[in-house]
Design a protein that fits this description.
Length: 306
Amino acid sequence: MSEPVKINIPASVAAFVRPGTPLQERLRGAGGAVDLPPRELLLLLFCLGKDTDQEVCTRATSSMASLPPGLICAALEGGEYHPAVLHALALNRGATTEIRTALLERPELSDVTRELLQTFHTAVSEPEEIGAAGTDVGGLPLDDEELLPDEQFTESEHDQEAEPGESDEEYLSKYQLAQEMGIGEKIKMALTGDKEWRKILVKDANKLVSAGVLKNPRMSEPEVLTLLKSGVQNDEIMRLICANKEWVKNYQIRKALIENPKTPLANALRYLGTMNEKDVAGYAKSRNISSVVSTQAKRMLLNKKR
């Protein structure tokens, strides 16, 4: 755990974040529809992204995700930033090439943030903007950075940033990174990431993220088979597997689909008709599959004996 973050902010930002600011005013600031220069808007959304109220935090994070890349790059052109601000921005928008490039030019960038951006660079090919206005990308708390409870931000008379202090940064595994990523970034990584990313994100609670893994062109048949045998309960994942003509050519995948209770019944019955006699006999006796499938297996065996 590192030392609490202490940064100096301009009066225009402090008006929204100082202790005692009404909730409605903080929500207005978190929405991003305020008349502030790009740099001050970025600082405001960072501050409110660490607000104690979850609605304020989520709205600020979503607003940061919807800022135009050009505005963010303009904000990064001048002045100094605390490394925590840059890290939050990297987590939220690091998969966007233009923003990632601008961040990598910042001298205050921590080694951990630089490594995070490199992860996005290697995993995402020609990323497109995800996180349009109104998209809820979830919270991006900096678990290794804590704000002071009463004096979260110190207002400077000269509107300058404080000198960034040193903090203990540790390597973030892909799993840890996934916990801090917004929904938009997770979707991008699901669509383009390597096997390790796919293994992590296919279990994500958000169906857009987990389904994105199935649309990743590098998703292999062994991975699909392992996923099915793990007892996946996601209806959308099952639908996507059944819809993939190449995957269902694989006998073992069809067999795993029959044995998974989440497989649409019509598909399970169709795949049953492609099984060998030994497997059909096993399904006829099984109590671990749908009773409809088991009954159909019994009928198939009787028809063969006639």
